[in-house]
UniProtKB/TrEMBL annotation:
This is hydroxymethylpyrimidine kinase. GO terms for molecular function: ATP binding; hydroxymethylpyrimidine kinase activity; phosphomethylpyrimidine kinase activity. It is an enzyme of class 2 (transferase). Pathway: Cofactor biosynthesis; thiamine diphosphate biosynthesis. Keywords: ATP-binding, Kinase, Nucleotide-binding, Transferase. Residues 18-266 form the Pyridoxamine kinase/Phosphomethylpyrimidine kinase domain. Pfam families: Phos_pyr_kin (PF08543). It comes from the Bacteria. Coiled coil: none annotated. Its EC number is 2.7.1.49. CDD domains: HMPP_kinase. It comes from Vibrio hepatarius.
Amino acid sequence: MPHSQDTTPIVLTIAGSDSGGGAGIQADIKAISATGSYACSVITAITSQNTHGVSAIHPVPLEHIESQLDAVFSDLNIVAVKIGMLADADIIQLVARKLRQYTPKFLVIDPVMVATSGDLLLQQSAISTLKQELIPMADLLTPNLPEGAALVGKPVPQSEEEMGALIADLRALGAHSVLLKGGHLEQDANSNDLLIQPHSSELLRAKRHPTVNTHGTGCTLSSAIASYLAQGNRLHKAVYLGKQYISQAIAHADELSVGGGHGPVHHFFNGHVNVR
C-alpha cells in the first residue's frame, strides 16, 4: 500500500556530491533509502573524488543552491534535514537562512571538514561561520574526533578519557545534542561513540570491524539517524538505530570490491541490492 503525502518520512540531505559514490550525497541517499525513508537532495559542491581521495572541489553557485532548497521545501513534506559538506562561509550562511525560513522538524549536522583520506573539505574561515550560524540550530551534531577537536580548539582526543574531557566544550557549541564519534581510536577493540545530551552523556559501544573500507561512514551514520528521526523515533533511539546500521554496513563492507583505496561501506547489506 503506498504511503500518503503525510506518512512518507522524507529526509533532505544538503551536501556535496562524491563522484566515487561512497560518501556525500550518494552515500546519504543510499543510507536514507536503506533505512526506510524517502531521500531528496540539495547539492552544495561537486567533488572529483574516488577511493583514493579528492582531486577537485567545485562549489555550486549560491543562487542554484537556493533554488534547489526552494524547489524541495515548497513541494515536499520534509521532516528531517541532514547537512554534510558546505564548502564555504557563504554557502553556510545561505543554508542557515533558508532553514530558518522553512523550519524543518529535525536537523542533523555532520560537520564535514576532513575526508577519510585526510583532505580538508571545509575552508578554515568557514568553521567559525558554521559555529555561529548553523550549529546552534542542530538537534544533533555528529563530529568525529578531529572535527570535534577543531570545533572547540583542543587537541584531538587519544583516549575515551580525553573524549570525555571535551563534553563541556562541545555542549557550549549550542547544539541540542552531540554524538562524538570514536572511530579514530583505532587501538581500541571497540568503536565507541559518546552521546552528549543537555543533562547527561553516555558511551554507545560497538565492536570494531577491521577493514580499510570506511569511506563515507560519517555521511552514512548521520543520514541514517536523520532517517530514523523522520520516522518518529526519539533522538536516543534514532542514534542507537543509526549506530546499529553503520556497524552492520561496516561489517559487510568487504563484501564489496570498489576501488583500490578506502572503499565504501555496504549500505544495502540487508540484501536490497545484489552486489555479486
